[in-house]
Design a protein that fits this description.
206 residues; mainly beta; nine-stranded parallel beta sheet; seven-stranded parallel beta sheet
């Protein structure tokens, strides 16, 4: 579990007991190919700005993740991927959760998912979050889901499965899929979506 806490000295708790990173993260990105049952990422009250990857996953690249959670006023801004997943690129994610978080100006340069590109996602829960001015060159200004990204990279399929998504008190503002489908979300698989108090606004094209 990776945790960036409220104080300047945040802690990184993992089985391997790695040293703590700073609560402000700028530049670079992280990668994981761990088992979906073993690796979880959590960011709380942190500032993550300006990370980039030439290919996929401007902040995080993972073949499998058990959980990824962003909460407590965390700001994730100006992450950039050369292809897919401005913030996150993953073959399979068990739980993706954002609560009271702000995602701004994240970019998938020549691919899908301005914030995230995921092949398989079991549970997505968004509450009190803002997604503003994120963009993808192709599909899903915020999220692209269901394409078999894993087979393109690793030759191993992570087929999309039925999942449940819930959006509550969330704003989707000015996100864009510049040359494809789904200004906010592009979904290419069966899923159930619930939306409570969610506000969406179309980007102004000039």
């Amino acid at each position: 579990m990776l945790s960036c806490g409220e104080s300047a000295s945040s802690r990184w708790v993992q089985t391997s007991q790695q040293p703590p990173p700073p609560s402000r993260v700028k530049g670079g990105s992280s990668s994981s190919s761990g088992s979906s049952s073993g690796l979880g990422l959590m960011l709380i009250v942190g500032i993550v700005d300006g990370n980039a990857a030439g290919n996929d996953g401007g902040l995080v690249w993972a073949s499998q993740l058990a959980t990824m959670q962003v909460a407590g006023g965390a700001n994730i801004t100006r992450q950039q991927a050369g292809r897919h997943g401005g913030v996150l690129f993953a073959g399979s994610v068990g739980l993706l959760r954002a609560a009271s978080a702000f995602f701004y100006s994240n970019v998938a340069g020549l691919g899908d998912g301005g914030v995230a590109a995921v092949s398989r996602l079991s549970n997505l829960t968004i509450k009190g979050a803002v997604f503003a001015q994120n963009r993808a060159w192709r599909h899903g200004g915020v999220l692209s889901y269901g394409s078999d990204y894993a087979i393109a990279r690793d030759g191993a399929s992570a087929l999309a499965a039925t999942s449940y998504w819930r959006f509550e008190d969330t704003a989707l503002l000015g996100n864009q899929a510049l040359n494809g489908d789904g200004g906010a979300m592009c979904v290419q698989a069966e899923q159930q979506v619930g939306a409570c108090g969610t506000y969406a606004r179309r980007a102004s094209m000039s």
